[in-house]
Design brief:
The structure holds two protein chains of two kinds.
Chain A: H1 5-13, E1 24-27, E2 31-35, H2 41-50, E3 62-66, H3 75-91, E4 94-97, H4 102-108, E5 117-120, E6 134-137, H5 139-148, E7 151-154, E8 158-164, H6 173-184, E9 193-197, H7 206-214, E10 223-226, H8 230-237, E11 258-263, E12 270-272, E13 280-282, H9 283-286, E14 293-296, H10 304-314, E15 324-327, H11 332-340, H12 343-349, E16 353-354, E17 374-377, E18 393-396, H13 399-408
Parallel strand pairs in A: 2-3, 2-5, 3-4, 5-6, 8-9, 8-11, 9-10, 14-15, 14-17, 15-16, 17-18
Antiparallel strand pairs in A: 1-7, 12-13
Chain B: E1 9-17, H1 38-44, H2 53-56, E2 62-65, H3 77-84, E3 89-92, H4 97-105, E4 110-112, E5 125-129, E6 134-136, E7 142-144, H5 150-158, H6 161-170
Parallel strand pairs in B: 1-2, 2-3, 3-4
Antiparallel strand pairs in B: 1-5, 5-6, 6-7
Classes of the chains: A alpha/beta, B alpha/beta.
């Protein structure tokens, strides 16, 4: 009987020849990743102290990203950053600060190694799955890895998603995730690893796969991973890989809990409606809904493909008076590229407000919404209060839908609006 | 580490959330999601569902949920409020994984029991037996519960994930 890629990765990390879904194992993660946030990294320190541990295990495999509360707007936020700088230096943990949103920076900095296993406490780390990295998100597992090197976990069953075809113009990866939720609901892969495969993978950019994988948790998946193709392996090798592993993939006779197929050419522009990422509708069904604000950015979107798509739609145009559009490239590297090729200039000329990478726009710590305002966002979440007032409404959409909608101050289908995607 | 036995729970059902994908933040309301005061949390709990809930709930009561209970972006204060009110366990058809991990790590029993939300009403008495893997309902009806992984069982027996790690260090 064959194994899935997830089973192979976990078997390697558990120093076993093979493991099967349902096995309870102790596995040694390759990387421990965390963003700095009050209640998380300080809790890790406190809990380690309770356990009598002053030093994290394998600090050379640990990375912390300062991407929340950046730039600091309160003295206590900067003081917390100061504390984190000191703590990581004392621990020997690699610190990334002002490089961008951690999940994207992790990929750029070589933590997205095909076949590697990484732990974080934030579920959107699953975007590393775009290059075949297995990730799991759990505060408990990160603490256990910090004190024991190993984590105790149950090998998850794998649900397989086969992609075929290619996206039509005006349709983006975000729409694929929404299409999946509309078809199969928010329990599609509950408690499972979600494995993405099929010829459609080759029709999607790495950035598109990052978007889909990074939002995998909304299907209930505890891990989302693309089977690495030669193209994706080559892309990984183009990044500074922190680990060299033998190429692995799922066996043809691996056992899956379920399999679903999506023809990418069937996907149309879709939105997640407030108040839940699971409430999906087509953009056409919501067309005309008035909007006050827009946010293009986050770990889910805000990469070059997103920025260029929005720039293509907004170039030479002007946002409506009173409409605020915040554009936040996901990383400094992306910002530099988007500045160099004129993308940011086109967006700024249209009236967009460009800011440096930060998680704070996605979570309502800056550019907050007033009660009853409607926003369109490429952020990760639309739960009440996510971007400010609890009775503001957040519609989650692709960069193309966002740009077309921003241009008109209301929800607009991006197809035929100048997008090349 | 030896397997630890979990004590059976005999309790009254304080409330049944029947809807799928229930977002637990609604228990105290998203406007109050950063509340930390214990007394205030107890006052806020379930106010939008049953204003008299905090006066009617009794220590040891359980809550019952539907499929995928805890979906969304759950915060900790709502279930902190429930623990402060004495709720001893949540029994649901199924749970969202992130919510499950968070609450189990705090040592708060969550019990997977397919069919439970359609099989009981508020005020019913139930008995959860972690050895027999059953929930006994009124009228002698019995439903099966999904067994815990050994790790989750140990975490609940120890009282929290931190206590579980401390025990592993000792053994």
């Amino acid at each position: 009987m064959g194994s899935t890629l997830v089973e192979k990765i976990l078997a390697r990390c558990a120093s076993r020849l093979s493991v099967r879904a349902g096995d309870e194992i102790e596995a040694r993660p390759d990387f421990m990743l965390a963003y700095e946030l009050r209640g998380y990294t300080d809790a890790l320190e406190r809990e380690m102290a309770v356990l009598g541990r002053a030093q994290v295990s394998r600090p050379e495999r640990f990375a912390v990203f300062i991407d929340h509360r950046v730039p600091a707007k309160r003295p206590e936020d900067e003081a917390f950053h100061q504390h984190t700088r000191g703590w990581t230096a004392q621990q020997g943990i690699t610190l990334f600060e002002r490089k961008g949103i951690g999940h994207q920076v992790a990929l750029e900095e070589g933590y997205a190694v095909p076949g590697a296993f990484a732990i974080h406490f934030d579920g959107h780390v699953s975007q590393l799955g775009a290059l075949g990295t297995l990730t799991m998100a759990s505060r408990a597992l990160l603490l256990q890895a910090a004190v024991e090197e190993k984590v105790t976990l149950c090998v998850p069953p794998t649900t397989r998603l086969v992609l075929t075809g290619s996206l039509r113009p005006g349709v983006m990866a975000r729409d694929v995730l929404h299409h999946l939720l509309a078809l199969h609901g928010p329990r599609f892969a509950a408690g499972h690893a979600l494995e993405i495969d099929g010829p459609g993978v080759e029709a999607l950019s790495l950035e598109a796969l990052q978007c889909i994988c990074g939002l995998g948790e909304f299907t209930g998946a505890i891990a989302t991973i693309v089977l690495p193709t030669p193209r994706l392996r080559a892309m990984a090798l183009g990044l500074p890989q922190r680990l060299a592993l033998e190429p692995e993939t799922s066996d043809p006779d691996a056992t899956y809990a379920a399999t679903a197929e999506i023809d990418l050419s069937d996907v149309v522009p879709m939105l997640a409606l407030p108040p839940s990422p699971a409430r999906i509708a087509t953009v056409q069904a919501l067309a005309g809904t008035p909007l006050d604000a827009g946010y293009l950015g986050s770990c889910a979107s805000g990469r070059l493909e997103d920025l260029r798509t929005a720039a293509t739609i907004l170039a030479g145009q002007q946002l409506p008076p009173g409409f605020s559009l915040h554009v936040v490239p996901t990383s400094q590297r992306i910002m530099v590229q988007a500045a160099a090729d004129g993308t940011l200039a086109a967006l700024a000329a249209a009236g967009a407000f460009i800011s440096s990478p930060s998680c704070d726009f996605c979570s309502g710590n800056i550019a907050t919404l007033a009660p009853h305002q409607n926003a369109i966002s490429t952020g990760t979440l639309n739960v009440p209060g996510r971007m400010g007032a609890v009775d503001a409404n957040i519609y989650l959409a692709s960069a193309a839908t966002l740009a077309a909608s921003a241009l008109h101050g209301k929800i607009v289908d991006p197809r035929g609006q100048g997008s090349s995607h | 580490m030896s397997s630890s036995r979990l004590t059976p729970i005999t309790a009254r059902v304080a409330w049944v959330f029947q809807e799928e994908n229930f977002d637990v933040d609604r228990i105290i309301g998203v406007a109050n999601i950063k509340e930390t005061d214990a007394k205030r949390l107890q006052e806020l709990a379930m106010r939008d569902f049953d204003p008299a809930f905090s006066t009617r709930v009794a220590p040891g009561d359980v809550l019952v949920g539907g499929p995928n209970f805890g979906y969304g972006h759950p915060h900790m204060p709502p279930m902190q409020a429930m623990r402060l009110l004495g709720i001893s366990a949540i029994v649901a058809d199924s749970f969202a994984p992130a919510y499950w991990n968070s609450e189990i790590s705090l040592g708060f029993p969550q019990v997977v029991c397919p069919g439970i939300s359609r099989s009981c009403r508020a005020g019913d008495r139930i008995r959860i037996d972690f050895d027999a893997l059953t929930v006994q309902l009124e009228q002698a009806q019995v439903l099966r519960i999904t067994p815990y992984t050994e790790r989750d069982r140990q975490v609940l027996a120890c009282g929290s994930f931190v206590a579980y790690l401390a025990q592993r260090q000792r053994t």
